[in-house]
Amino acid sequence: MKHANKNIVIIGGGPCGMEAAYRLKNEGMNVILVEKGPSLGGHLACWDRLFPESIKADDLLDILKNNISDVNCFLNTEIIKMNLRNDAYDIELSNGITVLARAVLFATGFDIFPAEKKEEYGYGIYNKVITNKDLEQYFKTGKDERIPANPKNIGFIHCVGSRDEKIGNRQCSKVCCATAVKQACEIKERFPDANVYSFYMDLRMFGRHYEDLYYKAQHECGVRFIRGRVSEISENKEGKLIVKAEDTLMGKPIKITMDLVVLMAGMKNSEAGIKTAGQLAVLRDDDGFFNSEDSFYNLEKSAYRGIFFAGTCLGPKTIPETINEARSAVLSIKEYVESFAND
Amino acid sequence: MIDFGYTLNPSSRINLDNFDRNKFEKLSKSEPDVLLCIGCGSCTASCTAGKYTDTSLRKAILSILDCNEKAAVDFAASCLLCGKCTLVCPRSINTRNLLLSITKIYGKKQ
Questions:
Q1: Which residues of B touch A (CB under 8 A)?
Q2: Which residue of B has its CA nearest to A222?
Q3: ipTM of the predicted structure?
Q4: What is the pTM of this model?
Q5: Chain A residues with at least one Cβ partner in B under 8 Å
Q6: Distances (CA, A) of A37 to A30, A34, A76, A308
Q7: Where does residue A28 rank: exposed (0-12), middle (13-18), buried (19+ CB within 10 A)?
Q8: Lower CB count within 10 Å: N or C terminus of chain A?
Q9: Where are the domains of chain B?
């Protein structure tokens, strides 16, 4: 019998890749985790707290990291080449190492929509316009020169780079509604005298306890939810922001002066992941995310033998969903690897 | 001045900078339920008076938030206080109390 190849390459060191690495290691696989950035954690490492219970993002990150302390992790490393050879993938890494992997897991995650592309909102132009990610950084570090000491009016703008065909993202990014409501509560806690506004189209409180978060935002934090997409933001001579929208429930245009505006930038498939997958001509859907073999029963499988997907490279999702998908992909990878055992 | 027959319409745009927060806090203190409306419209759909008049709790609440206090009072004025909206409200808002408080705080007689 040939020596069984149990090498598994996981691409992406975010929550998905980390969880998959841990579980695959426990199944006796030889895991190689490849991360393009200088550290593990992906977007989770940039976040302060997670909805709906506001647990510390770092607490989850620590668990995920501790689990894989003995896994081979290559940081600052990219995939240079990937070729199928005899039911295994010949993978060349940018650090000079070559791996013959039985299976490859794409845990390549997502990119946050570059909010400056929605130029009418003035991100990168006006100083008081920030994104959801910027705000998390501020919550984490307490530092952001763009955030004034005593903001009177703070606005959250939903669906920036989501549900917007004009900028090429038709899909709903799914997690921004809950993130906006969470952040609205948190900023109200930080600035109790501020009026907090949320401009939404639909509030998609799909998960367990999310509706409670919305209730809290209304009842305890007094967040004013205005149904209507903001059409444009401009700056007045005092450097404050003029936000224009329609209150579509009343059918009237509205205008308000803001001291801070937070754009809820959505999710798109990771450019780095797309580039790597491009070597295998992995198929993508209209929304840019990868295509599974089928979207009900074989979500974690690609159209190619030995190539698996998990997490947000398959579409926007929450961290618990991502972790579950990582585990489900591990099960499929294990079955796949074991199918060679009798050869 | 010669009248050329042209008129200027006042802007119908709502300026939320004019929102009277103190007054609203008075309302939300006595009726915290006002914060809970999700704008579903079941109150208006079930309203006995609403079929014949412009009665709408949903619009009354929104009018306050959109700085149109007079409209808010008008939307509440023709309420019969039958209480059907209390039965249908998914957020269990004490609708009759709220309507009365709106009239009390935002009506002319204070």
A1: 12-17, 19, 21, 28, 32, 35-36, 39, 58-59, 62-63, 65-66
A2: B35
A3: 0.91
A4: 0.94
A5: 195, 197, 215, 218-219, 222, 224, 227, 247, 249-250, 252-257
A6: 22, 9, 5, 21
A7: exposed
A8: N
A9: 23-106
